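Weekly modeling sync, notes
Attendees: AB, CL, MP (scribe)

Item 1: holo prediction request
CL wants a bound-state model with pyridoxal-5'-phosphate before deciding which constructs to order. AB pointed out that an apo prediction alone won't tell us much about the pocket. Agreed to run with the ligand included and paste results into these notes for async review.

Input as submitted:
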Amino acid sequence: MNTIPEHINSGPWMLDPAITYLNHGSFGARTVEVFEAQQSIKRSFESSPVDFLDRRQHLITEARECICSFVGADSEGFGFVDNATTGVGAVVSSSKLVQGDEILTTSLVYNGVRQLLKHYCKENDLLYREVEILLPIESSDSIVSLIESSITPETALLVVDHIASASAVVFPVKDIIQLCRQKGVLVLVDGAHAPGMVELSINSLQPDWYVANLHKWTCAPIGAAFVWANDSHRKSTHPLTISHGLDEGLQKEFDWQGTRDVSAWIAAVDAVKSGAEIGWDTIRAHNHELALWMQDHLLKAWNAESLTPIDGNMLGSMATVYLPENAPNELDSCVALRDEIYEKYALEVPIFPIQGRGALRVSAQLYSSEEDIERLLAAISSIGILE
Ligand SMILES: Cc1ncc(COP(=O)(O)O)c(C=O)c1O
C-alpha cells in the first residue's frame, strides 16, 4: 500500500470547494493567484492595446524563455499556440508527407487528434493506421515492440502520446523516439498532459516535434500551449494561421497568428513560478503518489485488475480503473452516469468505455485528497453499482 502524501498548501484554487474535483486531466485548474495574474495582464492590454501588442512583445519573448527552461527546450524551436490540438494540426500540415505515406499512431490516441489525423490523411491521400495496444499493458517494452513491429516502409510519421488521455498510460517516449530514428520515421510526441506531470527535457528527447499544453498540469490559464520543432524542421514548421512573420523564423511566425489575446501565454510564467515556489519535483512526486494511492484504493474496492504495472512505473498523476462489471459500458450510458454523479453528489470524474468496459479516470493534484476517493466510492455504490 502506498503512503498517502503529506498535504501541500498550494494556496486557494478557483475551483468551487463544494465540488469534489477528480478531473484535473481534462482542462486543468488554476490557483487564484494565476487567475488574478492573467486578469492583470488583460487589464494592462485593455488600458493601452497598441502599446501592449506592438511595443511590449518582449513579454512573449520572456514567456517563451521561461517555458523553455521549464520543459528543457531550446527556444529557437518553440512557438506558442492555443492548445495541443492546434499544435498537432500545425505540425501535420507542415510535415510535407506525400501521397502514399502513412501516419501511424496508437489505439490509445486522444480522439480529437485521431479525427484530425484521419481527416488530414483523407484530404492528402495519405494512409492512416493505429497500432492496437490492448489493456492491461505488461510493460513499457511491450509498447516499444508493438510499435516496432507495426512500422512498414510506408510509415513516414509516428504520432505518439507522451501520456495517453483515457488510459492515463505514460508512454516510453525516449525509446520510441530512438526507434523512430533507427527506422527513419519522423516522430511527433503529443505531450498534452506532460509539462507539470512528468519531468521533461525536450532537448534530450529530441523528437522531430513536441506539442504540449500548459493549461493542464502546469495550471496555466486556458489557451497556453506550444509546438517545438527540432533543428531539421524549424524553417518548414508553420502555424495553421500564416501571417506577417512568414519565413522570418518559427518564433516570429508563431508569435503573431493574427490579433489575439496573449494573456494566457504570458501568465503561464506565473503558473511556472508559483509551482516552483513549492518545487515542481515535490508537486510531481505528491501527485504521482496520490494517484497510485487512489488507484490502489479503487482496485481493492472493486476487485479490479490494474491496466498498467501495479508499481505505477507507467503512470503519472492520473489512473484509469475499470468500473465493476454491472456498470455501464457504452459511451452514452457512461456519460449519463458521470452526469448523475455530478448532479447528485457534486463530484466530477470522467467515465467512459475503454476496450468494451466502463472505466473512470482519477486525477491527483495538490487540492486532491483521499477523502475524494471515499466520496467517489460512496457515490458509485449508492447509485447501485457494486462489485
Ligand atoms: C493526449 C491528448 N492530446 C491532445 C489533447 C487535446 O488538448 P486540447 O483540447 O487542449 O487541444 C488532449 C486533451 O485532453 C490529450 O489528452
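Recorded for review: The longest helix spans residues 280-302.
Action items: CL to compare against the apo run; MP to circulate these notes.
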